[in-house]
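Model it.
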Amino acid sequence: MCGIVGYVGYRDCTEVLVDALSKLEYRGYDSAGIAVFENEEIKVAKSKGRLADLTAKMEKEGMLHGTSGIGHTRWATHGEPSDRNSHPHGGERVTIVHNGIIENYKSIKDFLLGVGRCFKSDTDTEVIAQLLDYYYDGDPVHTISKVVREIEGSYALGIVFEDFPDTVFAIRRESPLIVGIGENESFIASDVPAILKYTKNYYLLEHDEIAVLSKYSTKIYDLHYRQIEKELKTADWDMDAAEKCGFEHFMLKEIFEQPTAIKTTITPRIVDGLPNLEECGITPEILNGFSNIHVVACELLCTQVW
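Modeled.
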């Protein structure tokens, strides 16, 4: 499951984003990237591999400096692990990070290609970025609301617009996302551990709620642009408990995550209601040649010590 973080405040954004992403490494990932406002321009650094590879790349090519931005660790679902398929993804004026699956990405991509949009990756995520950019009318909340009415699937999105350099936007459906509230700083994250170093105060975003984060305030809207008042929660967990998302132990957490993990694995490989494994080199002709399927699994034995 991908990890998402975002920050706006007074600290060095690159340092915060990389540190926060490191707290989400337990989720698994194959690439990482960040987008930072530097001199009121969105600058992106991303790399296949570990966070250490991203840091090494920035040390070689130039560190990004700013006080607002978004970051991501990717677990590939659309497109092979590579620099080009790593998040963030952007159009001309909008850059995003995404956790989830866009089920109708192909029809949207066909539409965007038809109106002259060019794609730089093989991901379903870039479809969202391009659609946001296509519809952008100068009002980020209005544009986000319009786009999510068209996309189907699950998502948690961290979004930055080039003409709003001190603001981070976020929205979720199905995939988890929280909004952290600090003193003169705000955060988004896929999970509580990412922000515990900086604040224990946070809002839980509900489905299709749009968060608008700035240095001094955070506002949350519904899809009808009405502002929502939410309960500010306080995490009373230590880091170990936070990584377990409140479950007593990791096994229980993983049991409850199984439906999402299965859906995330299967959904992008179903096309028009039928299995499609061509990205793995398995065509319908090859499938028809199989006479047996062997399912290999393992059983985890737990011993209770009394």
